[in-house]
Amino acid sequence: MSERGNRKTIQGVVLSNRMDKTIVVRAERIVKHPVFQKYIKRYEKYKAHDETNQCAVGDRVLIVEHSGETHEAVVGRLKIERRPLLLVEARSGEAKVSLVLQNAETIRLVGEGGAAVSVAALAVGDRVLGSLAEGGRHFGIAVRETILEK
Question: Whole-model pTM?
Answer without folding.
Answer: 0.41
